[in-house]
Amino acid sequence: MASKTLTFSVRPRGKPLHKLPEELSLSSASTSSDLYNQLASSTKTSIHRLRITKGSDGSFIPNTSSRPVSDTGLRDGSSIYVKDLGPQISWRLVYVLEYLGPLLIHPLLYFLLPSSPSSPTFLQTLSCTFITLHFLKRELETLFLHRFSSATMPLFNLFKNSAHYWLLAGLNIAYWTYSSSSPAAGDSNPWITWPSGALYVVGELGNLNAHLVLRSLRSSGGNERGIPHGFGFGLVTCPNYMFETLAWIGICGLTWSLASVLFATVAVGQMAIWAQKREVRYRREFGGKYQKKKSVMLPGLW
Protein backbone atom coordinates (compact mmCIF):
# COMPACT_ATOMS: atom_id res chain seq x y z
CA MET A 1 0.00 0.00 0.00
CA ALA A 2 1.37 3.40 -0.99
CA SER A 3 2.10 5.79 1.83
CA LYS A 4 0.12 8.98 2.17
CA THR A 5 0.78 12.31 3.79
CA LEU A 6 -0.47 12.86 7.33
CA THR A 7 -0.88 16.40 8.65
CA PHE A 8 -0.97 16.99 12.40
CA SER A 9 -2.06 19.99 14.42
CA VAL A 10 0.77 20.93 16.81
CA ARG A 11 0.11 22.51 20.20
CA PRO A 12 2.51 23.46 23.02
CA ARG A 13 2.23 21.85 26.44
CA GLY A 14 3.37 24.27 29.12
CA LYS A 15 5.88 26.93 28.10
CA PRO A 16 5.71 27.42 24.29
CA LEU A 17 8.71 26.36 22.27
CA HIS A 18 10.35 28.93 20.01
CA LYS A 19 9.32 28.47 16.36
CA LEU A 20 7.03 25.56 17.13
CA PRO A 21 5.02 25.00 13.92
CA GLU A 22 1.22 25.01 14.07
CA GLU A 23 1.08 22.11 11.64
CA LEU A 24 3.43 19.31 10.68
CA SER A 25 3.23 16.88 7.75
CA LEU A 26 4.79 13.42 7.53
CA SER A 27 4.47 10.35 5.37
CA SER A 28 2.42 7.58 6.97
CA ALA A 29 5.50 5.39 6.56
CA SER A 30 7.58 7.74 8.72
CA THR A 31 8.50 6.63 12.21
CA SER A 32 7.87 8.40 15.50
CA SER A 33 11.59 9.14 15.50
CA ASP A 34 11.06 11.15 12.30
CA LEU A 35 8.34 13.09 14.10
CA TYR A 36 10.72 13.99 16.92
CA ASN A 37 13.54 14.88 14.52
CA GLN A 38 11.37 17.22 12.47
CA LEU A 39 10.08 19.04 15.55
CA ALA A 40 13.60 19.28 17.00
CA SER A 41 14.84 20.73 13.72
CA SER A 42 12.00 23.26 13.52
CA THR A 43 12.41 24.48 17.11
CA LYS A 44 16.23 24.24 17.19
CA THR A 45 15.81 22.19 20.40
CA SER A 46 17.61 19.02 21.45
CA ILE A 47 15.50 16.01 20.63
CA HIS A 48 16.00 14.78 24.19
CA ARG A 49 14.16 17.80 25.60
CA LEU A 50 10.96 17.02 23.69
CA ARG A 51 8.01 15.00 24.96
CA ILE A 52 5.17 14.40 22.49
CA THR A 53 1.71 13.25 23.51
CA LYS A 54 -1.50 12.59 21.59
CA GLY A 55 -4.21 15.22 21.85
CA SER A 56 -6.94 12.58 21.89
CA ASP A 57 -6.01 10.77 25.10
CA GLY A 58 -2.76 12.35 26.32
CA SER A 59 -0.77 9.14 25.81
CA PHE A 60 2.97 9.41 25.29
CA ILE A 61 4.47 8.88 21.83
CA PRO A 62 7.90 7.26 22.27
CA ASN A 63 10.88 8.32 20.21
CA THR A 64 11.71 5.14 18.30
CA SER A 65 12.72 4.30 14.77
CA SER A 66 11.03 0.88 14.93
CA ARG A 67 7.44 2.15 15.12
CA PRO A 68 5.66 3.83 12.17
CA VAL A 69 3.84 6.98 13.17
CA SER A 70 0.61 5.45 11.84
CA ASP A 71 0.91 2.72 14.51
CA THR A 72 0.83 5.25 17.33
CA GLY A 73 -2.86 5.94 16.78
CA LEU A 74 -2.26 9.26 15.04
CA ARG A 75 -4.38 9.94 11.96
CA ASP A 76 -4.54 12.72 9.40
CA GLY A 77 -5.80 15.80 11.28
CA SER A 78 -4.83 14.49 14.73
CA SER A 79 -3.52 16.91 17.35
CA ILE A 80 -0.23 16.43 19.14
CA TYR A 81 1.11 18.27 22.17
CA VAL A 82 4.81 19.09 22.50
CA LYS A 83 6.45 19.81 25.84
CA ASP A 84 9.93 21.16 26.55
CA LEU A 85 11.32 19.01 29.36
CA GLY A 86 14.03 21.55 30.16
CA PRO A 87 17.78 20.98 30.53
CA GLN A 88 18.73 17.31 30.27
CA ILE A 89 21.64 15.14 31.35
CA SER A 90 22.50 11.62 30.25
CA TRP A 91 21.35 8.72 32.41
CA ARG A 92 24.82 7.20 32.34
CA LEU A 93 26.49 10.38 33.59
CA VAL A 94 23.95 10.76 36.41
CA TYR A 95 24.62 7.21 37.57
CA VAL A 96 28.38 7.71 37.43
CA LEU A 97 28.23 10.93 39.46
CA GLU A 98 25.73 9.75 42.08
CA TYR A 99 27.67 6.53 42.82
CA LEU A 100 30.97 8.40 42.89
CA GLY A 101 30.01 10.04 46.21
CA PRO A 102 29.91 6.98 48.47
CA LEU A 103 32.69 5.34 46.44
CA LEU A 104 35.04 8.18 47.52
CA ILE A 105 33.56 9.09 50.90
CA HIS A 106 33.78 5.67 52.55
CA PRO A 107 37.52 5.05 52.03
CA LEU A 108 38.22 8.70 52.89
CA LEU A 109 36.37 8.68 56.24
CA TYR A 110 37.64 5.19 57.02
CA PHE A 111 41.17 6.60 57.09
CA LEU A 112 40.35 10.05 58.52
CA LEU A 113 37.93 9.32 61.36
CA PRO A 114 39.35 8.23 64.71
CA SER A 115 38.15 4.66 65.12
CA SER A 116 39.27 2.33 67.91
CA PRO A 117 42.24 3.36 70.09
CA SER A 118 44.75 1.62 67.80
CA SER A 119 43.31 1.03 64.34
CA PRO A 120 40.03 0.32 62.55
CA THR A 121 38.39 -2.88 63.74
CA PHE A 122 37.72 -5.95 61.65
CA LEU A 123 34.04 -4.95 61.28
CA GLN A 124 34.94 -1.42 60.18
CA THR A 125 37.43 -2.72 57.63
CA LEU A 126 34.97 -5.31 56.32
CA SER A 127 32.17 -2.72 56.13
CA CYS A 128 34.34 -0.27 54.20
CA THR A 129 35.52 -3.00 51.84
CA PHE A 130 32.02 -4.31 51.09
CA ILE A 131 30.39 -0.89 50.69
CA THR A 132 33.22 0.33 48.45
CA LEU A 133 33.00 -2.82 46.33
CA HIS A 134 29.23 -2.38 46.07
CA PHE A 135 29.51 1.08 44.57
CA LEU A 136 32.53 0.16 42.45
CA LYS A 137 30.37 -2.62 40.97
CA ARG A 138 27.65 -0.10 40.26
CA GLU A 139 30.08 2.23 38.51
CA LEU A 140 31.42 -0.58 36.32
CA GLU A 141 27.90 -1.76 35.47
CA THR A 142 26.95 1.79 34.52
CA LEU A 143 29.95 2.19 32.23
CA PHE A 144 30.02 -1.23 30.60
CA LEU A 145 26.81 -3.16 31.26
CA HIS A 146 23.62 -1.13 31.49
CA ARG A 147 21.64 -0.24 28.35
CA PHE A 148 19.25 2.63 28.97
CA SER A 149 15.90 2.92 27.22
CA SER A 150 16.10 6.72 27.39
CA ALA A 151 19.18 8.80 26.63
CA THR A 152 18.59 11.59 29.14
CA MET A 153 16.73 12.67 32.26
CA PRO A 154 15.97 16.15 33.68
CA LEU A 155 19.07 17.88 35.06
CA PHE A 156 17.35 18.37 38.43
CA ASN A 157 17.46 14.59 38.98
CA LEU A 158 21.24 14.79 39.25
CA PHE A 159 20.98 16.85 42.45
CA LYS A 160 18.12 14.80 43.90
CA ASN A 161 19.81 11.46 43.22
CA SER A 162 23.23 12.67 44.31
CA ALA A 163 21.82 13.89 47.63
CA HIS A 164 20.40 10.41 48.23
CA TYR A 165 23.72 8.68 47.60
CA TRP A 166 26.27 11.26 48.72
CA LEU A 167 24.49 12.10 51.98
CA LEU A 168 22.52 9.00 53.01
CA ALA A 169 24.77 6.26 51.59
CA GLY A 170 27.99 8.27 51.81
CA LEU A 171 28.43 10.70 54.71
CA ASN A 172 25.72 9.36 57.02
CA ILE A 173 26.67 5.68 56.87
CA ALA A 174 30.42 6.38 56.81
CA TYR A 175 30.38 8.63 59.89
CA TRP A 176 28.31 6.26 62.03
CA THR A 177 30.35 3.24 60.91
CA TYR A 178 33.97 4.39 61.15
CA SER A 179 33.86 6.64 64.23
CA SER A 180 35.16 5.38 67.58
CA SER A 181 31.62 5.37 69.03
CA SER A 182 30.26 3.14 66.29
CA PRO A 183 29.02 -0.36 67.20
CA ALA A 184 31.34 -1.56 64.42
CA ALA A 185 34.26 -0.24 66.49
CA GLY A 186 33.71 -3.12 68.91
CA ASP A 187 34.30 -6.83 68.62
CA SER A 188 32.51 -8.77 65.91
CA ASN A 189 30.04 -11.56 66.60
CA PRO A 190 30.78 -14.38 64.13
CA TRP A 191 27.18 -15.60 64.37
CA ILE A 192 26.11 -12.28 62.85
CA THR A 193 29.17 -11.25 60.82
CA TRP A 194 29.54 -14.33 58.63
CA PRO A 195 25.83 -14.78 57.76
CA SER A 196 25.71 -11.05 56.95
CA GLY A 197 28.76 -11.39 54.74
CA ALA A 198 27.19 -14.39 53.00
CA LEU A 199 23.97 -12.44 52.36
CA TYR A 200 26.04 -9.63 50.87
CA VAL A 201 27.93 -11.94 48.50
CA VAL A 202 24.78 -13.78 47.38
CA GLY A 203 23.00 -10.46 46.90
CA GLU A 204 25.75 -8.90 44.82
CA LEU A 205 26.24 -11.94 42.59
CA GLY A 206 22.49 -12.41 42.12
CA ASN A 207 22.08 -8.74 41.29
CA LEU A 208 24.88 -8.92 38.72
CA ASN A 209 23.32 -11.99 37.10
CA ALA A 210 19.94 -10.24 36.84
CA HIS A 211 21.58 -7.23 35.22
CA LEU A 212 23.27 -9.48 32.66
CA VAL A 213 19.90 -11.04 31.80
CA LEU A 214 18.29 -7.61 31.38
CA ARG A 215 21.18 -6.42 29.20
CA SER A 216 20.66 -9.37 26.84
CA LEU A 217 17.10 -8.20 26.09
CA ARG A 218 18.14 -4.92 24.48
CA SER A 219 20.45 -4.19 21.57
CA SER A 220 23.12 -1.54 21.88
CA GLY A 221 21.45 1.85 21.38
CA GLY A 222 17.99 0.26 21.17
CA ASN A 223 14.96 0.72 23.40
CA GLU A 224 13.15 -2.56 22.75
CA ARG A 225 11.84 -4.59 25.67
CA GLY A 226 11.59 -8.33 26.24
CA ILE A 227 10.42 -10.79 28.87
CA PRO A 228 13.33 -11.73 31.16
CA HIS A 229 13.92 -15.36 32.13
CA GLY A 230 16.49 -16.99 34.34
CA PHE A 231 17.56 -17.22 37.96
CA GLY A 232 15.11 -15.29 40.14
CA PHE A 233 12.85 -14.09 37.33
CA GLY A 234 10.42 -16.96 37.83
CA LEU A 235 10.05 -15.96 41.48
CA VAL A 236 9.58 -12.19 41.35
CA THR A 237 9.27 -9.47 38.72
CA CYS A 238 12.54 -7.75 39.64
CA PRO A 239 15.09 -10.14 41.15
CA ASN A 240 17.74 -7.46 40.69
CA TYR A 241 15.94 -5.46 43.40
CA MET A 242 15.45 -8.58 45.54
CA PHE A 243 19.17 -9.33 45.50
CA GLU A 244 20.01 -5.66 46.07
CA THR A 245 17.88 -5.85 49.21
CA LEU A 246 19.74 -8.97 50.39
CA ALA A 247 23.09 -7.21 49.90
CA TRP A 248 21.97 -4.25 52.01
CA ILE A 249 20.61 -6.49 54.76
CA GLY A 250 24.09 -7.97 54.84
CA ILE A 251 25.67 -4.51 55.10
CA CYS A 252 23.28 -3.58 57.92
CA GLY A 253 24.36 -6.72 59.78
CA LEU A 254 28.01 -5.76 59.41
CA THR A 255 27.79 -2.08 60.33
CA TRP A 256 25.19 -2.37 63.11
CA SER A 257 24.29 1.18 62.14
CA LEU A 258 20.87 2.82 62.07
CA ALA A 259 22.26 4.97 59.26
CA SER A 260 22.60 1.83 57.12
CA VAL A 261 19.07 0.78 58.05
CA LEU A 262 17.77 4.23 57.08
CA PHE A 263 19.39 4.14 53.65
CA ALA A 264 18.31 0.53 53.05
CA THR A 265 14.72 1.35 54.04
CA VAL A 266 14.53 4.33 51.67
CA ALA A 267 16.18 2.35 48.86
CA VAL A 268 13.94 -0.71 49.29
CA GLY A 269 10.84 1.49 49.38
CA GLN A 270 11.82 3.15 46.10
CA MET A 271 12.70 -0.16 44.45
CA ALA A 272 9.32 -1.58 45.52
CA ILE A 273 7.57 1.25 43.67
CA TRP A 274 9.69 0.65 40.55
CA ALA A 275 9.08 -3.09 40.70
CA GLN A 276 5.31 -2.63 40.89
CA LYS A 277 5.37 -0.31 37.90
CA ARG A 278 7.46 -2.81 35.92
CA GLU A 279 4.99 -5.62 36.63
CA VAL A 280 2.14 -3.42 35.38
CA ARG A 281 4.15 -2.56 32.24
CA TYR A 282 5.00 -6.21 31.52
CA ARG A 283 1.33 -7.18 31.77
CA ARG A 284 0.28 -4.31 29.52
CA GLU A 285 2.96 -4.79 26.86
CA PHE A 286 3.15 -8.59 26.65
CA GLY A 287 -0.36 -9.69 27.65
CA GLY A 288 -0.78 -13.47 27.71
CA LYS A 289 2.87 -14.07 26.80
CA TYR A 290 3.91 -12.85 30.23
CA GLN A 291 3.49 -15.01 33.33
CA LYS A 292 2.01 -12.74 35.99
CA LYS A 293 3.85 -12.59 39.29
CA LYS A 294 2.22 -12.52 42.71
CA SER A 295 5.32 -10.91 44.22
CA VAL A 296 7.16 -8.14 42.37
CA MET A 297 10.30 -7.89 44.55
CA LEU A 298 10.22 -9.79 47.85
CA PRO A 299 8.62 -13.28 47.71
CA GLY A 300 5.49 -13.45 49.83
CA LEU A 301 5.92 -9.87 51.04
CA TRP A 302 5.72 -7.52 48.05
Give descriptors for this structure:
single chain, 302 residues, alpha+beta, two-stranded antiparallel sheet, elongated
Written account of the structure:
The protein is an alpha+beta fold. It has 7 helices and 7 strands, in the order E-E-H-E-E-E-E-H-H-E-H-H-H-H. The strands form 2 sheets. It has a 5-stranded mixed sheet, covered by helices on one side. A two-stranded antiparallel sheet has the order 6-7. Strand 3 and strand 4 form a beta hairpin. It starts with a strand and ends in a 16-residue tail after the last helix. The mean pLDDT is 91.
Short characterization:
This protein starts with a strand and ends in a 16-residue tail after the last helix.
What's the story with the biggest beta sheet?
5 strands, mixed
What are the low-pLDDT stretches, counting only 5+ consecutive residues below 50? none
Shape: elongated
H/E topology pattern? EEHEEEEHHEHHHH
- State the strand order across the main sheet: 2-1-5-3-4
What's the tally of helices?
7
- Structural class call reads alpha+beta
Q: In angstroms, what separates the terminal alpha carbons?
A: 49 Å
Rounded average pLDDT: 91
Q: How many individual β-strands?
A: 7
Q: Helicity, in percent?
A: 40-55%
Q: Which range does the strand content fall in?
A: 5-15%
Question: What Rg do the Cα atoms give?
Answer: 24 Å
